[in-house]
Amino acid sequence: MIKNIKTKETIKDIKTLDKKKTLDSFNKKQSINTKNNVQDEKENKESNYAINKIKSASEKTLVSARIKIKKYRNQKRKNEKLIKENSTKKGNIKLKNIKLLAEIRSLEMEVLVINCGSSSLKFQLIDSDSEKVLAKGICERIGIKGSVITYQPTGGEKEVSNIDMPTHHEAIDAVIKALTNKETGVINDMSEVKAVGHRVVHGGEYFSKATLVDDDVIKKIEECNYLAPLHNPANIIGIKACMKLMPDTPNVVVFDTAFHQTMPESAYLYAIPRKYYDENKIRRYGFHGTSHSYVSKRVAQIMDTPYDKLKTIVCHLGNGASICAVDGGKSVDTSMGLTPLAGVIMGTRSGDIDPSIIEVIAKQDGLSIDQVINLLNKESGVAGLSEVSSDFRDITQAIEDGNAKAKSAFDAYIRQVVRFVGAYIAVMNGVDAIAFTAGVGENNKFVRAAVMEHLGYMGVKINHEANDSRGEEVMISTEDSKVKVFVVPTNEELAIARETVEIVNK
User: Fold this and answer.
1) What's the pTM value of the predicted model, to 2 decimals?
2) Which domain holds residue 143?
């Protein structure tokens, strides 16, 4: 009977049943050390009933995810103990129990996804089997007075706690305590977390895929610090804190830049003296790679078309924005460059400008280069042009109120998005699908409609009713549109978790 309990679906069904009764009955069947025939017959009946119930059961809605999860974890621990005990016995049952244990372990992996900023730390705990978020939260104001952690278990209430977090080490410790809290935690202890996946902004030319962390990997990330001085050092701090607090848990790094390492030299080289690339690796790297990868793969699934047969343009439009040309599953061009400042206009970032502007502003206002770069990063973009806000909801409202500067900023933004989309259609010699994602792309119908109206020459036709949606996965082009256009909510955390599991299971 054991061989019938080896599928992913059956494991999921086990979770949704009366776990103690069902699994106890099942494991009783496995024990061959019975005292008499009467007991054997009883256990056989219980086991058959359990198996039949498992086969016929359907997924039940989790009323309280936290309680259900904890109950299952406790039961799984008991079952694994019984399997280990039985595995010491001779015979075929030993081999089958070992295989079942391996199956359980391979399907069940809780992954902690960490995204460290200079003064913040976002986290999610994800079940790799169901791909559901078990809990999530954020630590804010790390190293600053008034630091706070926001924690929410799936199905539970959001909790906000003031905790002194002078470094990321204390922040990671706060995350661990939240996840294992007896009242609101979703796991019993951190041994249930089988891996930690870290978002790292810049991997330079060292990394073209996710990588298991060791001393050499950390050294190479540190060598890329000059390429992302605001992000990489913070990312490393988070990695080292996890390694110290969870020494037996493998850590995996997933890079924003990795997906774009397939770009040809003609796409990533800047027309500056070659020595700056040869000696300093000054080139286009691109960012939001995890998002572009996830969304382009999802588009292929939606269209039921092989990933390597599609030409897709992904418009990741949030406060930070980038556009990527994905040809046959590979990034062949992208709008961000050496840093996340380049490309389309963003919330507070300028995007592409004439580089001489830096000198002009510096001389006119008596600013240093650092001050000008800060201005381009934090005081420019839609916010700088509109003098209203970096938030497109505010921009849209201002336009409705007759604000001319807001309308001018909106039009400039749309023009830049259209320019990059058009350029990438030319680069790929055509396009099959266009996808909008991230905060603006997923939620602002006016931005999507304005971009699509410029693509009529490609046979793009907008479905205005479908485009009224917010934050939903939907096709917003008509059925007869020559190019299919989608809204696909990004899920960078899930993408990181998937890559982490893949690396750890190798």
Assistant:
1) 0.76
2) 110-255
